[in-house]
Amino acid sequence: MHLDIAVLEGDGIGPEVVAQSIKCLRSVEETFGHSFTFKNGLIGASAIKKTGNPLPKETLKLCKSTDATLFGALGLPEFDDNPKAKVWPEQGLLKLRKKLELFANIRPVKVFPSLVKQSPLSKTQVQNTDLIIFRELSGGIYYGDKSNDEDKNSATDTCTYTESEISRIAHLAFKSARSRKKKVTLVDKANVLETSRLWRRVVRNISESYPDVVLNCLFIDNAAVQMILNPSQFDVILTDNMFGDILSDQGSVIAGSIGLLPSASVGLEHAMFEPIHGSYPNAAGKNIANPVASILSVAMLLQHFKMNEESDAVVAAVLKSFSKKIVTPDILGSSKYGTNYVGDFIADNIMELDGSFNINDENIGLGKSTII
Predict the structure, then answer these.
(1) pLDDT for 68-100, tens place per residue?
(2) CB-based contact 331:98 (threshold 8 Å)
(3) What sign for the dihedral angle of Cα 276, 60, 76, 139?
(4) pTM
(5) Which of 199, 229, 255 is the endpoint of a domain?
(6) Looking at the 3D structure of the chain, how many domains does it have?
(7) CA–CA distance, 284 with 234 (Å, rounded to integer)
(8) What distance in Å separates the CA atoms of residue 242 and residue 93, rounded to the nearest whole number?
(9) Any idea what DSSP says for residue 235?
(10) Domain that residue 212 falls in
(11) Distance separating alpha carbons of residues 262 and 293, to the nearest angstrom
């Protein structure tokens, strides 16, 4: 198979972790006989500095014309700490998601058995954690009407959802649950918010089309508590843009490092794959950033294009790096290996699986219809 892939390295550690992902895709090319073409584009702070625009027209055109987008990270302190800035890096990502109509963000949260000690929670709390968060990505409060009246010291952010926006991601969540543990948990604030009441009504109606899947509804505050107390109780979590943003980062704490979790953002025509972590500018250029989240995002990219064996091979190589303790400093207190070495090791160990490495034993398989 041949794929044209747009590469948006972004800011901070983005270029470093994406470079390791490309190494892994090159290894997949060689091992499985595929062909990938990489085309770079600007986004975020780097784009603002060069063009004044966090999402240049050329970048948007590139992403629309390629098969998939591989994304790094966004943000620099000089923009974050400047409340009077007219543009900021995150605007580029929000606009890109909207223009590509990426309405579903899919974030697996899995606790790797070999890294259970990495979690700040107890082994009994986190073992067997294997859940997926389906976060609505193109609507809600992040995209609603906004106002800021400095004279009156008041500001407004409007949260708006439509039935169609809710139903399209709800169907993805239920289809995914069918191939997993057949359980969907809707997270909302239906006791307070009208948009959440709409979510609950629409999702309950849709659930009738999936009688084999159990639907449970939780308020966001309770869901946040339950994710810490007993994360293994969850299978598929379905929620809106803001709540999904919050719960996804909480999921990284359960796993033990934000540098471990990948994500996919999908629409009807386009797809983008990215680690859930930020740009971590203090680590940029120091060869200490964890590339695993970006590399596992590559595994999700391969799965999206039905290259399941190839995806499993990438995951197996990541798991081998864990078992050999070839990890970056954020994992297990190690300081022996850097970003590039870990990336090289994983890329060098991507090979056809012959049964000698059982992915299921490590409870990691990104299959089971993570992406629909």
Answers:
(1) 999 999 998 888 766 666 788 889 999 999 999
(2) no
(3) negative
(4) 0.90
(5) 255
(6) 2
(7) 35
(8) 15
(9) S
(10) 120-255
(11) 5
- The catalytic site residues sit at 142, 189, 221, 245, 249
Q: Minimal CA–CA distance to 237: which of 217, 260, 255, 209?
A: 217
Q: Where are the alpha helices (DSSP H) in 218-367?
A: 220-229, 241-255, 292-304, 308-323, 339-348
Half-sphere exposure of 9 (CA within 13 A, CB side): 16
Q: Are 132 and 276 in contact (CB under 8 A)?
A: no
240 plus 126 within the same structural domain: yes
Tokens 């106002």 appear where?
Answer: 147
Tell me the pairing of strands 214-219 and 183-188: parallel
Q: How far apart are CA 222 and CA 306, in angstroms?
A: 36
Cα 106 to chain centroid, rounded: 6
The answer as to whether 110 is a domain residue is no
Question: Pick from 211, 234, 255: which residue ends a domain?
Answer: 255
- Count how many residues are written for the chain: 372
CA-to-CA distance for 260 and 221, rounded, in angstroms? Answer: 25
> CB within 8 A of 175, min separation 6: which ones?
369, 372
113 part of a folded domain: no
State which amino acid sits at residue 348: D
**Is 133 found in the same domain as 69?**
no
Supply 52's token pair. 């004044």
Q: What is the pLDDT of residues 37-60, one digit of tens each?
A: 999 999 999 999 999 999 999 999
CB atoms closer than 10 angstroms to residue 223: 23
Residue 119 has pLDDT above 80, yes or no: yes
Give kind and range of the element (H or E) at residue 201. Answer: helix 194-207
131 and 250: one domain? yes
Q: Give every CB contact of residue 129 below 8 A, 6+ residues apart in sequence.
A: 109, 110, 111, 231, 232, 254, 255
In CATH, what number is assigned to the domain containing residue 151? 3.40.718.10
Looking at the fold, whether 284 and 228 belong to one and the same domain comes out as: no
State which amino acid sits at residue 192: V
Smallest Cα–Cα separation from 112: which of 262, 274, 275, 280?
A: 262
Distance of CA 93 to the CA centre of its chain: 13
Q: From CA 229, how far away is CA 51, in angstroms rounded? A: 47
Question: What average pLDDT score do residues 131-158 get?
Answer: 92
Residues 180 and 220 in one domain: yes
Quote the tokens at residue 155.
């500001």
